[in-house]
Structure prediction request, 1820 residues.
Amino acid sequence: MTNILKGRLKKTATKALDYIESIEVDKVLAPYDIQGSIAHLLMLSKCKIIKPAEKRKILKALKEIEIEIKQGRFKFKKELEDVHLNIEARLIEKAGEVGKKLHTARSRNDQIALDLRLYLREEIKEILFLLKNLEKVLVKKAEQNFNVIMPGFTHLQPAQPILYSHYLMAHFHAFQRDYERLVKASQGINELPLGACALAGTSFPIDRKFVAKLLGFKKVIPNSMDAVSNRDFAIDFIYAASMVMLHLSRLMNEIIIWSTPFFGFIEISDEFCATSSIMPQKKNPDVAELVRAKTSRAYGNLLSFLSLMKGLPLTYNRDLQEGNPLIIDTVSILKKSLDVAGELIKDIKVNKGNMEDALKKGFLEATEVADYLTRKGVAFRNAHQIVACIVRDLEKREKGISQLSLAELKRYSPYFSSDVKKVLNPQAIVKKKKSEGGTSQIEVRKDIKKAKGLL
Amino acid sequence: MTNILKGRLKKTATKALDYIESIEVDKVLAPYDIQGSIAHLLMLSKCKIIKPAEKRKILKALKEIEIEIKQGRFKFKKELEDVHLNIEARLIEKAGEVGKKLHTARSRNDQIALDLRLYLREEIKEILFLLKNLEKVLVKKAEQNFNVIMPGFTHLQPAQPILYSHYLMAHFHAFQRDYERLVKASQGINELPLGACALAGTSFPIDRKFVAKLLGFKKVIPNSMDAVSNRDFAIDFIYAASMVMLHLSRLMNEIIIWSTPFFGFIEISDEFCATSSIMPQKKNPDVAELVRAKTSRAYGNLLSFLSLMKGLPLTYNRDLQEGNPLIIDTVSILKKSLDVAGELIKDIKVNKGNMEDALKKGFLEATEVADYLTRKGVAFRNAHQIVACIVRDLEKREKGISQLSLAELKRYSPYFSSDVKKVLNPQAIVKKKKSEGGTSQIEVRKDIKKAKGLL
Amino acid sequence: MTNILKGRLKKTATKALDYIESIEVDKVLAPYDIQGSIAHLLMLSKCKIIKPAEKRKILKALKEIEIEIKQGRFKFKKELEDVHLNIEARLIEKAGEVGKKLHTARSRNDQIALDLRLYLREEIKEILFLLKNLEKVLVKKAEQNFNVIMPGFTHLQPAQPILYSHYLMAHFHAFQRDYERLVKASQGINELPLGACALAGTSFPIDRKFVAKLLGFKKVIPNSMDAVSNRDFAIDFIYAASMVMLHLSRLMNEIIIWSTPFFGFIEISDEFCATSSIMPQKKNPDVAELVRAKTSRAYGNLLSFLSLMKGLPLTYNRDLQEGNPLIIDTVSILKKSLDVAGELIKDIKVNKGNMEDALKKGFLEATEVADYLTRKGVAFRNAHQIVACIVRDLEKREKGISQLSLAELKRYSPYFSSDVKKVLNPQAIVKKKKSEGGTSQIEVRKDIKKAKGLL
Amino acid sequence: MTNILKGRLKKTATKALDYIESIEVDKVLAPYDIQGSIAHLLMLSKCKIIKPAEKRKILKALKEIEIEIKQGRFKFKKELEDVHLNIEARLIEKAGEVGKKLHTARSRNDQIALDLRLYLREEIKEILFLLKNLEKVLVKKAEQNFNVIMPGFTHLQPAQPILYSHYLMAHFHAFQRDYERLVKASQGINELPLGACALAGTSFPIDRKFVAKLLGFKKVIPNSMDAVSNRDFAIDFIYAASMVMLHLSRLMNEIIIWSTPFFGFIEISDEFCATSSIMPQKKNPDVAELVRAKTSRAYGNLLSFLSLMKGLPLTYNRDLQEGNPLIIDTVSILKKSLDVAGELIKDIKVNKGNMEDALKKGFLEATEVADYLTRKGVAFRNAHQIVACIVRDLEKREKGISQLSLAELKRYSPYFSSDVKKVLNPQAIVKKKKSEGGTSQIEVRKDIKKAKGLL
Prediction:
């Protein structure tokens, strides 16, 4: 504990100080602490709680400190415990006694809540930019590879032929939901806690609306106890971030599987791979693996925060401090992961030939054949059964359905006639899936067009 | 696996069937499965994929099955694996061959996604009702106990005097955020997956917009692969539920602490307590403890779902089935917890006398005295230090600040004068905290009024 | 609350009772509750706290209840809240007033701790049996397919040729660690909590050692407060179970990937697959997927329990009740997963041909060539670089290293001579990996032999 | 990627390198990397894979690097990606070409597994020391305050009088289990992965037993694929650490509650408290709160690791790298928390007077009175009911049982006689709880004695 504060208590034990100080983590909040202090200062002056001359002196010192921070010259001291006291101490050093007036009608409790909100608001802007960028990459890839047909999967087993673009757009939609979730999450951030002071407000005639306006907040938090107890905005962010990571992990895991030589659907650029220290031939998808792994870290941060908050009595408890590194770590994971994933995907090479070869495996036409029979009048459940029998028999013979003659097919069902051939190739099947949202070119093109409208 | 489906494969091993069947869990989805099937049926008929007579037959059978389910007469069979096949088998039993046509242009993949959405939509309605009810209870309690003053806490140590109503309203705000979060989460639910079929859409001329309209969905999911891969809507719900539980756990933990005889601030009604099997005097806050505990279970469900989804390739994987019990369990926890918490809080007795006695401990007037000095011209940081010294000295003497004479106070600072007495009692202090959102009656009354407008 | 207990308090509200009752969950503990009650009874009698005739009457009734439970005839009543009070009420019904003496020197606090320990001890026995069985299956498969060579993977990219048996034995070792972990975890279970009563012990002259002996516990818990507060033994179990599931999930995910037609290394038996409701050709690895998914559920249970316990004051709190379903659910998941996984693996068909074909991809001989150069005197880091260049060039030409002539090789390094051919085929490479624990037949055979010694 | 390795691939993109490098985290492993390299070197020399002169040169350089690291002079470079390549590059710089030979028969895959094991082995030693120290503090406190009686709690409600020492020893036992859990967890660490190379072992004639002996490992991991895939030892540690934190959180939460003025049982030393930036009177239990909070962080690390590993195919995947910061962070949390908690508890002041006053609340004698009646011949369940009625009536009258006359008591039950007075004071009750492990002085003294034997 610092000489600024500890009037009543004996000096903090070194081990205790080491344990409670948070400066290594919360120094990233310094610019926001200054920003909040300036708004607070202007309000104190406007409300005549401090005098104009005092305001000028403090403002000058704060601006100088702001520059020190920007230029990396500010010396953060562990013994000053946290970012707020570091800056306040420096202010007093620079501005003299008048600096001791800035903390009037303010507590670290509302101050940290403000700093976190200012910080997150700014970071989410950048995150939204990176997320949109990733979405653009996906849409662009979908356009560039528009006519590429590949096997679509359920249970990682070949299911039906699809457009590769259709697949890419499925991921686009997940990220678009993430975008909206983040936008919604960030709405809760724009509310001003400052002025709540320790927990109960203050008897100074402050003007919270003025501060809100200066800082661009859309409202003042209307209950001071809630203002300092609440970390929902931060947990909402970490949750939204976990969802982005979840969606990234699904995409990355497919990239990992698809770039094995046995699938060979895609190739990651060398620049996003790593080799082995012992196996000279290796080209490993390390970046994709790490995105997948860091997903778990975001999950861990979310869980830590939830567990941390469970059962905490109102209002501020020091436990809340332990939430700060979780927020900051998640911001970092998310920004880096979005950025690197966007680049990685942009550079992916699609092996169209391998995808087409792959269409020959797994009887991808089976559903269409069952639908064919259904259109001819067979009840779907029976048609399903008939095709199942065909597949069972063919599997032993290592043949595809298209290799059967009409006569052979008729042995399974009299409803087969020569037009069945039209549903036996992937191109035809894809084209026929014209239901809304289906994999036909016409539908996927619509989807892409709409997406471009959003971006 | 069932005789309905398993044409191609050998019979499922008993242990495998035991492992994959989900009927005990997903039978709660049965009414929604019927609802979805009827909409699907009407669409098939409208699109002339089945004939009017077929439609009538199937519809009749489905309605009868619906009644069987409602009346608890429907026999769910484990060997029929899941809710969909149970109902389809019963349909075929009742309607005969024509029943085998219903699954045309549909897959269990889009069907389960639909059922879950219909189920959650309905349950969230009830949850919102219960949540609003809890909020009403809090506001009512805040009105009923409007002038009760108690110690406000930070770090569970007495901080400043506050209105008990102010405290209750702080919890109100947390639940109001939960309300909005749930409303937002439920927006994602109202989108139609049906028609995505297995993953790629269908070549039947279906009309998804028609189905969406019948079911009251606001849009059709525009990418069939996304439609069957996506469980965001469910995870969003579980997250929102976890946040409600988090806020309940904070309130319940305070109730537990405050109803110990040493705090004695409140008394829980007998009806929400339990006694001991060995200690006859015991009146334990079991309900409050269980709400606190079930919070952890909601967290576990959230984490399980996130971990489950990590890295899953598109589109449907059987892993998704394991998400269903997590959803259903969370719905149950949340509904029961909100309901019982509302009742418990409604019946809580406030021990005004104990709260007032408690105001004497912990030097709750200290901040106001420092503010007093600040108004007299002392820099806040210095005023803080002066009061810290007073407290340090008084603590040894086991006295309160109000017990000091003016002369004694002046020994600490010449700025003290006789008007200091006005800031030395809790009533006066509360009244003075008139900053926006502060604990003064005027501000808390505003807060309550606004809240009532929302409810 | 029940008429047995609630002398002091008003009747529990219906909603409160619904919330706190646990009978649906804890009725699986009924046989253990009886077992513990009998031991307690015998001790009360031995210590002359009850009379011989009383003992006989109670014993007779307990034995009858035991049979009712076994035969499923026991009627568990929700309004009797939990398993203990259900059985006590039935006892009083059967034995009359004397039944009211059984709870002398006992509390539900020590009783539930005992029940859980007896239950887990029994279940872990069965789990160890199933786990050992799975290990046996792996070892047997390793023996049966002893000379099958396949690509070993790092980063899911082909790395070096290995014996399939070597791979299977790697999984064996993970499960063997699990076995030991479970054995260790179960050691903590064999300690007697009974006699701790509510928290402080009792003034009755009980004999806890006698009870411990009757129940086969190795020691008496030496601190009564710890005895009723502690759930370490249960969390240890859930952790150990999570680790088993983790290892199963790794194996199952490989099974899923390897049984795609593009890898085609193995084929799961029809009996452990499922088909699609719409795609007739489908054979999906549903069982393997569900094992993978249920891993997340075990994780969720672990996390719930940890979060539940965090910060709980001593001694018993009702929160602990919420741990019980976590234990029971985890037991069920683990038993079923081990059982079905063992069966699934037993029936897996190895596609030796596909594995051998796969050896041609990915330059699996590269490390061996680098080692060859190193043996010839090139520093390893340089040798690594030389081979990297060879691979880079060959990749463009779509050739393998063995297709290069000696002359061509010499262009990369003069250290190549004709004996290089000996390190260019997978069989030779595998054979040469004779370092302890390496993939050579000689080492893998040793590993298998030792494993069989353990089983 | 570095110039040491990237022969085959194009240069790593800057963003990719930023994403995959881990040097800020894994530089704490540097001393262990050196230690492992020296052992590997000596083995290579012993096995004549390198020459004596080469060995000497490399050894000299490694020792110099070791000193550079110790003295903080070593320049870790991000572009060299990780700790292994940083040290290898520096080695080559210092020793020249011969340095390129050290990586013979080694891969980063087995190297990192070794480094982590060496690191954890060392850290666990220190952790065990700190844990034992904490246990000693508890035992010492238990001795120092031996005759202090306080209310024991269940459900945070007063239950029965207990010795404060009994309570302290309950926590001791939890930590003693932690000690044993950590010892067990560390057993799995002492197994040598080195020599597994990438995954398959090597064709060089290495001697793994020799390396194991040099490094003090008790065995060589007998399956090379398992050796590089396995992180059980690390997860076991994080789990064990989570359990320690769980137990610390329970203790700390009690300290927080008990040091409120309303309980007032204990007082934390100023040196482990902090004050408020706005409320001058405040003395907050910040250290205790942070220990409680950091528990959640340990949980998050555990969960992240479990989620990370789920479904990972054998053998090494880059995901594993993301486990390293989880290990290192958990080590740091645990060490600091144990250390500071030990100091905090050592300095706690027990307010004996407040504890004794507290004995008057909550009818702590009720169980003993019921037991009294039971000894007189009343069936326990009836005795329980009788005392429940007494308490119900007294509560209204705000009296304790000891304030009732014998006549009054007899109105509840004729079994009361004058000797009842002997069970109506806390001292007598504590003394009577002589069952094994009970709260009587005789039993607690035994417990303390045994504990001292263990320490």
Notes: Chain C touches chain B through 74 residues (CB under 8 Å).
